[in-house]
Amino acid sequence: QLWDIGGQPRFRSMWERYCRGVSAIVYMVDAADQEKIEASKNELHNLLDKPQLQGIPV
Pick the catalytic residue: 1, 8, 34, 54? Predict the structure, then answer.
C-alpha cells in the first residue's frame, strides 16, 4: 500500500497513524517554497521522534 497524505497543518495529526506498520517513509517537500523548508524539516523530525516509528527507513 502507498499513502499520499498532504502536508497542510490539518493533515499532520494523521501522519503518525498512517506510518504505523510501514516498511518505509517517503517524505517529499516542494523545494520551490523556501519558507516552508525549515518547517517541513521540523515536522519530519517530530514525526520520526515517535517511538513506534524508530528504525523505519526514510
Answer: 8
> Is position 8 annotated as part of the catalytic site?
yes
pTM of the entire structure? 0.68
Query: Are residues 52 and 20 in contact, defined by beta-carbon separation less than 8 angstroms?
Result: yes
Binding site members for GTP: 7
What cell numbers appear for 7 in the block? 502536508
Q: Kindly report, residue by residue over 12-55, the tens digit of the pLDDT.
A: 777 777 777 888 888 888 888 888 888 889 888 988 888 888 88
